[in-house]
Amino acid sequence: MRALANAPVHPGDRIVYRKQKVSTHPSPHAYDVHPASQGDTYIYFIDKFWTVEKVLRDGRLLVTTRTHKHHYLSPDDPNLEKAGWFARLRHWRRFPRLSEETDAEV
């Protein structure tokens, strides 16, 4: 994945965050799965589909998850990528909707 250093990001933009996880049972969406050095767990990545809620003055991004949790991300994080048209089309249900978007459609 590539960082968002060259792509302008605006509130409402969809992003894909590549998150590293460790567990005994990788999820069905896991990829790049490798056993841990001890052999009891697996290290893997999953894609998180988030929406940019706000771009802060210092450049950080306030993003919203599907469960309405918030995370602050640096735009130059190598695990962060702006969702392309194919990801937006294929995973449209997995991106959270901002409250303004929901209110505008009602």
Automatic annotation (TrEMBL):
What protein name is recorded for this chain? Uncharacterized protein
Q: Which organism is it from?
A: Chthoniobacter flavus Ellin428
